[in-house]
Amino acid sequence: MTEAAISIRALAKTYKGGKRALDGVTFDVPRGQIFGLLGPNGAGKSTLINILSGMVMKTSGTASIWGFDIDERPRNAKASIGIVPQEILFDPFFTPYETLELFAGLYGVPKAQRKSMELLRAVHLEDKANAYSRTLSGGMKRRLLVAKAMVHSPPVLVLDEPTAGVDIELRQQLWAYVRELNAQGVTVVLTTHYLEEAEELCDRIAIINHGRLIANEPTRDLVNKAQEKLVQVTVDRDLDAPPAAPCFEKIVLKGERVLEITYSKAKVNAGEVLAAVSGAGLGIVDVSTKEADLEDVFLSLTRAA
């Protein structure tokens, strides 16, 4: 199916007091992808997610989930999405199994079709099925939230900062499960402040800043936008100060023999940079380069905006 999993058109939200959280945002989340929604704190990401979930009323624009307009067919839209919020929210006196059974019932899932134990196994909580939820660790609670969002088998899963405060091992387990869900056809929307995570996981990334969409491209295309590159050059003698050259955007002396040179790939190439080092009368002993990553692009775009 070619229709978008989530389609947003000219979406705007102005809170009481005049705070404009979203300013005419338009983009589609393609079906079957892991889609990154990034932006600085206060950029409007949570407002957008809360509009999709029905927790916040939009000021103007349209949004649809799995082809269902959130205003015209709200029940169908809500049934098509599962949301894992930033905040850890559930009744501490319910067990994980009871929590999943309760929410499956609220979504109208017949008892014979519920898969509470299957979900607990998938998020490695099977052994905690009958423990009080308040006794779970922070990482376990986050995984329970993921299972809770999947009780009605929605085709779209939204993860809002799902790995905040989770240790490395649990984070890897969570991502393994997310990849598994995606392989089964679930469209995943991810917000995270761990940019290396987004770069590794996401097929496509949109960036919001000050309520406006400033980028929406395949991840690799976005990373390739970085214009600054860094080369580290070890020279054959001790230096008191780094040499200067017009092709260097910035040069820093790291130790007595290591130069860290930043240059713009739009203006020069690595060969010209190394030639400038040689032209300063220095012999080159070793060279290493640092490729641009999503963090470079993110900082460049948000600062410009």
Summarize the structure in words.
This protein is α/β, with parallel strands linked by helices and about 300 residues long. The chain folds into two domains: about 5-225, Rossmann fold (3-Layer(aba) Sandwich), CATH 3.40.50.300; about 230-305, 2-Layer Sandwich (Alpha-Beta Plaits), CATH 3.30.70. The chain is built from ten helices and 14 strands. The strands form three sheets. Strands 6-7-8-3-9-10 form a six-stranded mixed β-sheet, sandwiched between helices. The chain has a four-stranded antiparallel β-sheet with strand order 2-1-4-5. Strands 12-13-11-14 form a four-stranded antiparallel β-sheet, covered by helices on one side. The two termini are about 35 Å apart.
Keywords:
single chain; alpha/beta; Rossmann fold; 2 domains; six-stranded mixed sheet; elongated
